[in-house]
Amino acid sequence: MATxxxxxxxxxxxxxxxxxxxxxxxxxxxxxELTWDSRTEQPDERTSPEELIxxxxxxxxxxxxxxVLTRAGTPPTTLHTRAEVAFxxxxxxxxxxxxxRGEVSGVDAAAFxxxxxDAKKHCPVSQALAGTTITxxxxxx
Length: 141
Hints:
Elements lengths: L6 E6 L6 E6 L5 E6 H5 L8 H23 L6 E11 L3 E12 L5 H14 L1 H5 L5 E7 L1
Parallel strand pairs: 5-6
Antiparallel strand pairs: 1-2, 2-3, 4-5
Helix pairs in contact: 2-3
């Protein structure tokens, strides 16, 4: 059965001086403020579409890698995944870099790297972002 997740945004004003609020309807976890400055300047208490993509990608990728490793008979103890989304105001999103560190018994660094690459290929968010260059660094602890 397909599931749907819902969020909505209310934006007020023009792009450069306006502001918005994104609300996480499905989970009810709350809302976050966003502005143009939150996309282009140093991070503060506001979010950006790119940070939301990074959160979605890092969490989905972690789940995909956990599945790949578990199916191989070597479930992970811990996975730490970071997604860094690069945004250039005149170009848009220019790339995403995933960095994963894993604690996994019974695999060597080569097997972990292979599993990490496989997970990147099969992660639903990676697939949704297929038009973007996605790079990966995988390290076994």
